[in-house]
Amino acid sequence: MQCYPSIPRGPRYEELVNQYEKIYPADEDYIDKQHARHNIYRATALASMGQTQDSYLAYLNFRNTKFSKSPEGIYDAGEYLIEAKQWNEAANCFQRLDELVDKYHMEFSFENIETYYLKKYEANLKAGRKDSVYAISTYICDSLNAAIARSRADNAAELATIYETEQKETQIVENEAKLLRERQIAAIITIILIIGFFIVYALYKQKAAAKLHKAHNDLKVAYDQLEETTSAKERIESELRIARHIQESMVPTEFPQRDDFDLYASMMAAKEVGGDLYDYLIIGDNLCFCVGDVSGKGAPSALFMAQVIRLFRAMVKRNYTPAKLATELNAELVENNEDGMFITMFIGMVHLPTGKLDFCNAGHNPPVIGNGNESRFIDMEPNAPIGLWEGLKYQGEVIDDIRGRLFFVYTDGLNEAENPELEQFGDEQLLTIVKRTSQMSAREMIKTMKNEVKRHRNGADPSDDLTMLCLHVN
After folding, report:
1. How much is the pLDDT for 170?
2. Which residues are CB-neighbours of 306 under 8 A, at least 6 positions away?
3. pLDDT digits over 63-106, tens only?
4. How far apart are CA 332 and CA 399, in angstroms?
5. Is the backbone of residue 340 left (phi > 0), alpha (psi -120 to 50) or beta?
6. Fewest CB within 10 angstroms: 218, 333, 368, 411, which?
7. SS3 category, 358
8. What is the sign, positive or negative, of the torsion defined by CA atoms of 256, 259, 260, 266?
């Protein structure tokens, strides 16, 4: 099998490539290729030593080269991703292995199967791609048969050459000596060679059959393990989907259609279940609402979130002020809180006829209030999150009239959303978008903010739950 040559890697090599680039700047493809290989081999070595961050930076430098898009570059990336244990990405890279095989006219051999196709098998196996694992296993078995046939043909050709040489020597001896004894010796030698050939062939075939049988058994065991793991994963995913549906049913999805106010909210969990929440109730002329962010993620946060919503609704119906509500919530949640869970929370109560807003902010992000370019973050009392310490008494605040102005509350999954370069969405960009959308309806404003966050993430997975609530009081 052909493969591209090994090139020394290290500071000295990088220095040589830089010197070459200065002397021959027009040779862009060659320079790009050498920089790419220097970075991907360095990333692979760093990954094997556990230096994850430096390894990933080297890999990003590799991805910025043209060579990384070629069949050779994609294969090199696959080797790094295996070392970094990023199985799904590695499996995607090895999908293009056939392009590399066709480009270099690679022939079936045991070395090629071990070097290339077993890596493709490992990546797909650990990425949980059962169909791909089965297809690659079948391909490896077929490749083993072809490799055995090729090796068998090579051995036969070599023995035939030896046999032909011996025949010629025997003929020379027969012609010169004309002696029956030497003819008999030649015949005996020929028989020995034939017997030896069949013995070697039989041993080789037996060894190859044993290897194939072992590979078959290993694949069967791997398949059984994969099937068991997949079944367990499907059960867990099913349970989490049910938990997510239950959690989503706990927050309101229908919002009032009224002339005196416009309200809309949205919650998106980073995982199957999350710890963010929002809620609202209308009690007489008062609109009571809240937005909260529970510490941590996953099932524990979801359970804590459910308890907070239950207590919030019960206390709102008792006509508690936001400060009283936060104080009582803290007293309830501190009790038997051995895991140290807590929640940051903004609690507000608007008197709809006058637009007066009573609120209490418990360690939460500052909301935005305003209209157009006058929009701003609210300065608030530095209350502690709810659930951490006993005996806290929370301080409430008042805004005399919020009518005619947008009021926007959110969790830190918004301003701390990151793109692949780990750059955050940020408060400045958040405020800019609020200024631009302050005249939109509450639903349209939140839809626009979602799209802006998605554009900023640029394909990166969300790192935290994201909840937003927008309110216009007319």
Report:
1. 65
2. 247, 250
3. 999 998 888 888 888 888 888 898 988 888 888 777 777 676 66
4. 28
5. left
6. 218
7. strand
8. positive
The length of the chain is 474
d(Cα 290, Cα 261) in Å, to the nearest integer?
16
Cα separation, 197 vs 155, in Å, equals 9
Cα(402)–Cα(111) distance, integer angstroms: 74
The ranges of the chain with pLDDT < 50 are 1-8, 239
Q: What's the pLDDT at 406?
A: 97
Q: Which residues pair with 189 in a beta bridge?
A: none
CA-to-CA dists, residue 448 to 242, 293, 459, angstroms: 29, 22, 17
E strand residue ranges, 333-474: 343-351, 356-362, 368-370, 376-377, 397-399, 406-410, 466-473
What is the residue whose two structure tokens read 């650990």?
A: 126
Radius of gyration over every alpha carbon of the chain, rounded to an integer in angstroms: 35
Residue with tokens 């030698």: 189
Spatial distance between the Cα atoms of 219 and 323, rounded to a whole number of angstroms: 63
Other C-beta atoms closer than 10 Å to the C-beta of 178 total 9
CA-to-CA dists, residue 11 to 42, 52, 59, 333, angstroms: 10, 20, 17, 57
Rounded Cα gap, residues 7 and 34, in angstroms:
9
Nearest to residue 143, comparing CAs of 124, 105, 117?
117
Alpha-helical segments (H) within 3-129: 11-23, 28-48, 52-63, 71-83, 87-94, 97-103, 110-112, 118-126
pLDDT of residue 242: 54
Output the 3-class SS for 301-355. Answer: HHHHHHHHHHHHHHHHCCCCCHHHHHHHHHHHHHCCCCCCCCEEEEEEEEECCCC
Buried b (16+ CB within 10 A) or exposed e, 327-362: bbbbebbbeeeeeebbbbbbbbbbebeebbbbbbbb
Distance CA 117, CA 109 (A): 11
Distance CA 37, CA 61 (A): 10
What burial letters (b/e) apply to 270-289, b meaning 16+ CB within 10 Å?
Answer: bbbbbbbbbbbebeeebbbb
In the three-class reduction of DSSP (H, G, I as helix; E, B as strand; rest coil), residue 375 is classed as coil
Of 68, 204, 69, 213, give the one whose Cα is nearest residue 147: 204
Bridge pairing between strands 261-268 and 466-473: antiparallel
pLDDT of residue 104: 67
Contact in structure between 39 and 59 (CB atoms under 8 Å)? yes
Q: Measuring CA to CA, how many Å separate 124 from each of 228, 318, 376?
A: 16, 57, 51
Q: For the residues of 98-127, what is the DSSP string, one character each?
A: HHHHHHTTPPP-HHHIIIIIHHHHHHHHHT
